[in-house]
Amino acid sequence: MIGRVSDEATTQFAKHRIDAAALLGLRDPVEGSNWGPIRAAQIDAARRTALLFLAAHLIGASLTVLIAMKLLAPWLAACWGGALAAMAVGITFKRLSPQWQGAAMVPVMVVRRTSVSGIAMGMIWTVPPLALAPSAGPVELLELWVVLSMLMTASALATAALPLATLSFLAILGAALAAMMFVVSGPVLAAATALFTLALMVTCYAQARGLVVMRANEMALAERDETVNLLLGTQEEQGADWLWEIDAARRIVRASPRFAYVVGEDPLSINHKPILQVLGGSDWDNGPIDDSLRDLAEKLKRREAFHDLLLPIRIKNEQRWLEISAAPRFDEAGAYIGFRGVGSDVTEARAAAEKINHMARFDTLTGLPNRLMIYESLSKALADGEKWSTRCAFMMIDLDRFKSVNDSLGHPVGDRLLGRVAQRLGQLMSPNELVGRLGGDEFAIVVRDASDTQRVDLLARRAIEAISAPYEIDQNTLHIGASIGIAYGPRDGRTAETLIRSSDLALYRSKDAGGGVFHAYEPQLHAQAEERRVLEMALRKALANDELSLNYQPVVAAKAGALVGFEALLRWTHPTLGEISPAKFIPLAEETRLIAPIGEWVLRTACHEAARWADPVRVAVNVSPEQLLNPAFVTIVASTLASSGLSPDRLELEVTESVFMREGTCATQVLERILDLGVRLSLDDFGTGYSSLGYLSRTRFSTIKIDRSFVRGASKNKPEAIAIIRAVVALAHSLNMATTAEGVETEAEHRLITELGCTKVQGYYFGRPLPEAEARALAARAAAIAA
Could you tell me which residue, 1 or 36, shows the higher pLDDT? Predict the structure, then answer.
């Protein structure tokens, strides 16, 4: 950059600062000017050519006197010659005066005064052509023209350093010579003489300008060198970069103190040591050396310039990194004399770069490789597998039930749990595997050599067992699990993206199986994924296309068998796909965030239908946790009740325990506001999730629903199922809540559930889900019987 600035400064000087007036000394541009040193160079150049100036004029005067003696009295010619010689000697002594010798700056007046000498010399030289022209013959005139022309030429070339003086001399003498030629031979030779004089003046000006440009360049180079030296000196003092130099034998010469300090040498003794020995250690020539040091030796041997060569060295048992650049040097004769370059200690910069690289490739929470490094490792494993005709494997691990822990106990506990999971997985790894964290609660394992599939299965099984073992964190005993999907490359994918997608599909299968298992990828999983995609696209249009409908399953009193209400159940009939199971499309609706508009439609449709039933038959509507996260859901319920005319106590909203697993959400506040409207609240699937008695006491439930799995177990005389039903019934009774047993399909189950104390029953024994017309008729018959 310094060189570029100096070159630009020189160019600007040449373009804008060198004008005729400044060059001739007629004016002095003050602002931004460096003309003082340039004028000093002009005076110095004139001083060096002073004797040449004197010789030219003395020789010219001698020849002119000889010519004049043929035409004039000798004493007249001698007097003129003596006067000219005296004037030339005086001017020469003036130019050789030590007054301005070695001066760095010369005032403009010094250059300007030189015009006096030029005018004086020009005037005295006009005497011969003007005096001799009338009486001279052709031979004498030719001789005089030749002598004066040579004198003018010598002056234009030799004394151009003082352009004002030289141009004055040339103009005066040239005019006299042209006049002589006009008188003697006419205008043609006079014009030729004038053109010759003009050419000499142009040459003189070009010479003068060239001198100024050269001096300006010298000044710019000197300034640049001074600046560079200053900057280098400052950098060395501050410990930034340093200089180094070696001779043709690769020995260090003129080592800077900073260089000596960096390599751990004494500044007084480092000179004349081989640079390879200094950088590589005393055994550099007979022990193992780093490839970069060997590369340096080759470049020095081949005399090649190099840039930013990174060298590892050990200084006092500490690893340091140097970055050096250099170029070969040659003397004026072209002989190689060594290398000169710069270097810097980049140990801290390299450490910072390695830290940044580590942060870019490792997870800050667990310390495991992150998604980027996993992707790179998997890509390399695939490339190695293709090269050696082997196969690799990729395991995608998703933690089961981690979200409930994170939501209920908070993110700090969840983060510590992820750290413990990472530790357990890391203990299972061998050099053949790499475990990392993809993000959230997802981990991954890259198996570089997966030729033994049984070993891969064993690793997956051990990973599930390790993750599923209990954790003790902050006096909490935590239980989670893991689901794993496995894909093999290149069978299940030849690129990292494809293999990851295949393992993700296998993971979906493990999650659908209930978690806690692993599955390998199978080709039909892609078909299932495509089916899922088609279902999602169709589901997005189902509401607008009027493809959704509601069925109503009766809920009866356990002892009397009287109808007390219906549960609204969503059904989807696609024009081409036919009847689609709720077990397929409801989870899909929750994952794609379509459950909110669909749930609102279900609520409005069920309330408007229930308003047609006889009082007090109620309708129960399932509500997704996603709907309760919307504070506007209270407004939706209120407007639905108002528009349908349904009494609030005839609407029962069913929620699952997962609603209470999300701390910090507005779901509980939304439920309280709904209860304030007079709407009933039912807890669905109690006992199948992460039951907590805390929210039962805090929330005003009217009903607890017992899952069909407990009913089925009780019918088979399983003591655990019977004990759970008894406990739920007792709990509900103590909290003044009703209990509804789901999935009652036989008379024996009905009798058992009634004996266990359940207040309401729902199942195929009392009726399957009915279309709205049949449900309306059933409600009417029940009202007639009750009347």
Answer: 36
Find the DSSP H helices in 661-746.
Answer: 667-676, 693-698, 708-715, 719-734
pLDDT at position 548 over 90: yes
Is residue 305 a contact partner of residue 327, using CB atoms and an 8 Å limit? yes
Q: For the beta carbon of residue 357, count every other beta carbon within 10 angstroms.
A: 11
Tokens of 152: 């003018």
**Cβ neighbours for 98, distance < 8 A, ≥ 6 positions apart:** none
Higher local confidence (pLDDT), 696 or 689: 696
Token pair for 488:
């093999």
Q: In what order do the strands lie in the sheet with 318-330?
A: 241-246, 336-345, 318-330, 306-315
pLDDT of res. 143: 81
C-alpha of 137 from chain center: 91
Nearest to 335 by CA among 251, 245, 250, 247: 247
Confidence of residue 665 (pLDDT cuts 50, 70, 90): low
The model's pTM? 0.47
Dig out the tokens for 317 from the structure: 């048992």
Three state DSSP letters for 369-384: ECHHHHHHHHHHHHHH
pLDDT over threshold 60, residue 8:
no
Q: Which of 477, 544, 491, 485 is nearest to 513 (CA)?
A: 485
pLDDT computed for residue 694 by the predictor: 58
Q: Strand ranges (DSSP E) for 271-422?
A: 306-315, 318-330, 336-345, 392-400
- Number of residues in the chain: 787
Tell me the C-alpha to C-alpha distance, in Å, between residue 664 and each of 53, 629, 661: 101, 11, 10
Q: For residues 51 and 297, what is the distance between their CA atoms, to the nearest angstrom?
A: 56
pLDDT digits (tens, 9 = 90+) for 451-487: 999 999 999 999 999 999 999 998 888 999 999 999 9
354 closest CA partner among 310, 386, 393, 397: 310
Residue 130 scores a pLDDT above 70:
yes
Read off φ and ψ for residue 236, nearest 5 degrees: -65, -40
Tell me which amino acid residue 154 is. Answer: A
Crossing angle (nearest 10°) for helices 163-185 and 108-125 = 20
d(CA 22, CA 17): 8
Of the segments 213-227, 626-640, 690-704, which one has the largest average pLDDT value? Answer: 626-640
Give, in order, the Cα–Cα distances in Å from 20 to each of 16, 24, 290, 655: 11, 6, 63, 97
Q: Which uninterrupted H or E stretch holds 781?
A: helix 772-786
Distance in angstroms (rounded) separating the CA atoms of residues 761 and 743? 8
Residue 158 phi, psi dihedral angles, 5° rounding: -90, -30
Our measurement of the distance from residue 734's CA atom to the centroid of its chain's CA atoms, rounded to an integer in Å, reads: 63
Q: Give the helix ranges, DSSP H, for 238-286.
A: 257-262, 275-280
Q: Is 326 exposed, middle or buried (0-12, 13-18, 19+ CB in 10 A)?
A: buried
Closest C-alpha to 637, from 580, 676, 590: 676
Instruction: Compute the chain's Rg from CA coordinates.
Output: 53
Q: CA-CA distances (angstroms) from residue 530 to 176, 226, 388, 527?
A: 107, 73, 34, 5
Average pLDDT over residues 555-567: 91
Tell me which residue has tokens 């357990």.
Answer: 424
- Taking CA atoms, 698 is separated from 172, 233, 404, 562, 671, in Å, by 119, 77, 19, 31, 11
The dihedral sign for the CA sequence 128, 133, 138, 142: positive
Statement: residue 236 has pLDDT above 70: no
Contact between residue 270 and residue 263 where contact means Cβ atoms under 8 Å apart: yes
Residue of 480, 482, 490 lying closest to 507 (CA atoms): 482
pLDDT of 670 higher than 90: no
Residue 140: predicted pLDDT: 78
Distance of alpha carbon 101 from alpha carbon 646, whole angstroms: 116
- How many other CB atoms are there within 10 angstroms of residue 656's CB atom? 18
